[in-house]
Amino acid sequence: MAGECEEDDYMSDAILQQCEDKRPGLVFSSKIAKQFEQEKKQKVSNEKSKVKSKKQVEEEKRTEGLSTAISNENKGFALLQKMGYKPGMVIGKHGTGRAEPVPIEIKSNRCGLGTEAEAKRRREEMQAMRAKMATKRQRLEANQKHTFLQRLNEKFTSKNVEKDLKTSQAACYQLDIECGYDKPVESFHWPSHCLLEKKQGVNDEDTEEEVVEEEDEDQCLLSEEEKLETLTKYLRTTYFYCNWCGTKYKDLEDLNTNCPGDTADVHE
């Protein structure tokens, strides 16, 4: 009796066998738990995919209905057949009507009738305006490019003219000195520093001022191109000398025969 009344020891095997083994990692490892979770999510996803939205159902039914030809059970189609209509024929008294039913256009927005045509007209006007602006921009860029290239060409030409003028002045000074001239025919025929050297008997400051005044007068009257043209003509007619050839010819006939011309372009 005493043994029956005694309670089982909580550490005995009888108590442990009645308990469920829920030690983590023993049966349900992390890999198995992750697999169970994925299967659960897949099951929920499959359940959701079975339920289609109202819009999707309407679209499927509409597509199915439009792709199916009208059967003979349709009363309207039966009346047409009694009047001699056959599938594929056009309707109308003279056979100029429609061969297919009027297509269905589903209106998915809440805009009023005619707004799509107005929006299309505005889009076309906007595209035309953009095309016009693009053409105007291209024309402006082309003009700017042409102006830029023209300025570069003028700058390059001006530098070449200045260089040729200095070379011609040096040649003219040397040829005039060889012929015994004390001063040039025109003040711009000689370099300015050569004019200063020739006026040694006068005060240096006064001489420099006179030379500067003469040069200023010449610059006001003639441009660099005109000075070069005048000096080139003087050298060719007086000394039969060509600045670009760098040669002094025997006479005018020899100059005209062997020299390409009196400009820098023909010597390139």
Summarize this entry quickly.
This protein is mainly α and 268 residues long. The chain has a domain at 116-198 and 221-263. It has ten helices and two strands.
**What ranges have pLDDT less than 50 throughout 5 or more consecutive residues?**
1-5
Number of strands: 2
Number of helical segments with 4 or more residues? 10
- With strands numbered from the N-terminus, the spatial order across the biggest sheet is 1-2
* Overall 3D shape: elongated
SSE arrangement, N to C: HHHHHHHHHEEH
Provide an overview of this structure.
By secondary structure, this protein is mostly helical. The chain has a domain at 116-198 and 221-263. It is 61% helix and 1% strand. The protein is built from 10 helices and 2 strands. It has helices at 2-5, 13-18, 30-50, 54-67, 75-82, 115-178, 192-198, 204-221, 224-238, 252-258; strands at 241-242, 247-248. It has a two-stranded antiparallel ribbon. Helix 6 (115-178) runs parallel beside helix 9 (224-238).
